[in-house]
Amino acid sequence: MQSLVFILLVAFSRLAPAMVLRLPPKSPDYSQDLTNIPDNENSFTTVSAQWRVDSSADGTGAVWTASPEVMRRCAKSALTGMPEKNADQPDTGNFLFTDERLMDFLDIADHVYVICLSCTREVPTKLREKVSILNGRRSDECLSPYINWTKGKGYNHVHKVTLAHKLAITDAKAKNFNLSLVLEEDVLFKEDMEHIDFEPIAALVRDASRGWEILRLAWYDHLKKIARGCRAANVRNCSKWVSQNMCTIPSCDLHSSAAYMIPARAYDRFLTQGRGAIDGHVLNQFEQTVLTPPLCNQNHLIAPELKSETSFIKHCKGKTEF
Question: How many CB atoms lie within 10 A of CB 101?
Fold first, then answer.
């Protein structure tokens, strides 16, 4: 009997090391960060157990983030100003947008973040001073020691893009910007802005009393899911703050993170709530103010997005209030 116990003890001693939880290389002990977070960042503690890794297979089971200190450090690492243009350097013509009325409207934002990999597209001179470039490769490089990227089915890429967006808003929060505009480098703004009435949209953005949460300049009703729901129920759900080119709908399953405006009151929720992907729960946790039609599209989804716009406006948009 004693020999059997001895054998079991030896076997357990050899297996025990393999049973110990192994953290990723350089993974810090974030529990020490909790006592050092300023009062205005206490909301980060709600996701402290999820900082290290998203364990779900589909990438929607946890909030994708890192510790506040890591997010601030990586925001500084990944962000640069818009490169200065030499006086003798000819225009490349590779502008994100050129329409003067659109520029005047976008100038309402305190700061503009352009998330990119090639980082070759330009912003007109009028907005250049308020633009920051967030380099996706620098973002990935800085965050990689602290993140187990979600594997499979393209979620690795989506995970990285989502955290790049969150680095932009981390910077906006740290610098106390009241309104931020986020653009992805492959966004394509529509050429015809002549019939867009920007005044009611700008009035909403400036009106803190109405408490709008997110303004989506680009959106995609995938498979016309929302439009079909509106049609089936015979209910125009996008019926709040309706104007010629805008309406607001409760939280719903829209897609695209190509272009959106977000006010400071939404920063904390954006950073600490909303599971998984940026154009999933992160943006869709908010009440959605959408432009009708959107001002821009994703380069690789133009055809289906245009079709979904028509259907959504036809079946979901409410009657104009003013």
Answer: 11
Evaluate the omega torsion of the peptide bond into residue 90 and state whether it is cis, within 30 degrees of 0: no
Architecture of domain 43-83+92-315: Alpha-Beta Complex (3.90)
Structure tokens given for 171: 């910077």
Q: Which two tokens stand for residue 291?
A: 């432009």
- How many Å apart are CA 16 and CA 296, to the nearest integer? 56
One-letter amino acid of 42: N
Q: What is the CA radius of gyration of the chain?
A: 23
Tell whether pTM > 0.85.
no
Name the residue ranges covered by the structural domains of the chain: 43-83+92-315
Collapsing DSSP to helix, strand or coil, 46 comes out as helix
pLDDT in tens, 277-303: 999 999 999 999 999 999 999 988 999
Bridge partners for 296 per DSSP: 189
Give the CA-trace dihedral at 230, 236, 237, 238, to 10 degrees: 120
Q: Under a CB-based contact definition with an 8 Å cutoff, are residues 78 and 138 in contact?
A: yes
Residue type, 92: T
Q: How confident is the model at residue 92 (pLDDT cuts 50, 70, 90)?
A: low
